[in-house]
Write a structure and sequence with these properties.
Blueprint (H helix, E strand, L loop, with lengths): L1 E6 L2 E6 L9 E11 L1 H8 L5 E2 L4 E8 L9 E4 L2 E2 L5 H4 L10 E3 L3 E2 L6 E5 L3 E3 L6 H4 L2 H13 L8 E4 L3 H12 L4 E5 L2 H8 L4 E4 L8 E6 L5 H9 E9 L12 H5 L3 E4 L5 H4 L14 E5 L4 H8 L6 E4 L1
Parallel strand pairs: 8-9, 12-13, 12-15, 13-14, 15-16, 16-17, 18-19
Antiparallel strand pairs: 1-2, 1-4, 3-5, 3-10, 3-19, 5-6, 6-11, 7-8
């Protein structure tokens, strides 16, 4: 089968055997995959990654221990937890110290014709949701995680810093839940996607100072945290969504003096995301910049890394 291989910053294609399906796992045929910022960071050296990347996908179940799953379109949670440790027993398998992670840590990713995931990680895609929307389930769940982690009072304005893929999704999710949202970015064409859903947007070179009690940082760059802290009121909260390769320097004095809370935010529940895929205000279709066949993965990664590109799909 054809599989993408990423190593030392180079994306290539390999012909490899189809994976064996362990007990409790499903064999999946890729229908569509999405290249995200984490994949680009892996290419830049994050985790010293070598292998098959890809963790955003919609796939068809080819074989499974559960016959009812076979032939179904599914999306899947990316953390493969042990199910036995204290974290897993508390329902926090995303933090299992023994976990592997699809396409990131010690488990081959979805950018291949066939791959495997535990059946317990899978969620069936509703019939009315096309593949081009279903492929956004994983990053949409990451955006939904914000509201699982923090309790934002009703009517409180939330600032989102960054108009890339995750910034847009965060703004759209918060807007769909009724929060006034101000999305700050630098690209008018991206901001228009959120604006058409009713989000207030602004192009700014220098974000406002100490104006918001709740700030979502989704810039994808090292400067984003410093900007988000400057935007936050004393005793406010910054939710960090960016995954950046390398150390991020910041003067902690402002965080300490202003008693600002920093919340790291990563993967989220698919149960929260899947119903949103059918909502008109979640304008994921407008976020697709390009689509490539799997056989053109090197070109797809190059396009995804270009400034201004949103979502690039494979399949």
């Amino acid at each position: 089968m054809l599989a993408v291989h990423l190593e030392n910053g180079v994306v290539t294609l390999r012909d490899v055997p189809a994976p064996e399906r362990p007990a409790g796992f499903a064999l999946l045929r890729l229908l569509l995959g999405g290249i995200c910022n984490t994949d680009i960071e892996l290419q830049r050296g994050y985790y010293s990654f070598a292998g098959t990347p890809g963790h955003e996908f919609v796939a068809e179940v080819v074989a499974a221990d559960t016959p009812a799953l076979e032939g179904k379109r599914v999306v899947g949670e990316i953390n493969l937890a042990c199910a036995n440790c204290d974290w897993c027993l508390k329902g926090l398998g995303r933090h299992c110290p023994n976990r592997t992670v699809l396409g990131i840590v010690n488990h081959p990713g979805a950018f291949a014709e066939y791959f495997t995931l535990p059946e317990r990680n899978l969620h069936i895609v509703p019939d009315g949701v096309p593949d081009e929307r279903a492929v956004f389930a994983e990053p949409l769940a990451a955006a939904c995680e914000i509201l699982d982690q923090v309790s934002i009072p009703c009517g409180e304005t939330v600032a989102v810093l960054g108009d890339g893929k995750l910034g847009l999704l965060a703004a759209l999710v918060l807007n769909a839940h009724g929060y006034p949202v101000r999305l700050f970015g630098r690209h008018a064409e991206k901001l228009r996607i959120a604006a058409r859903a009713g989000v207030e947007t602004a192009i700014v070179a220098t974000p406002p100072v100490a104006e918001y009690a709740w700030v979502v940082e989704a810039t994808g760059n090292a400067e984003g945290l410093r900007s988000a802290v400057r935007m936050t009121r004393p005793r406010g909260t910054v939710i960090l969504k960016s995954t950046v390769h390398g150390a991020v320097g910041i003067d902690t004095a402002a965080i300490v003096v202003n008693e600002i809370t920093l919340v790291g935010s990563r993967c989220g529940r698919f149960e929260a995301a899947l119903p949103l895929l059918g909502r008109e205000g979640i304008r994921v279709g407008e976020m697709v910049s390009a689509r490539f066949p799997l056989s053109e993965a090197p070109a797809a990664f190059a396009r995804a890394a270009e400034r201004g590109t949103l979502k690039v799909l494979l399949g």
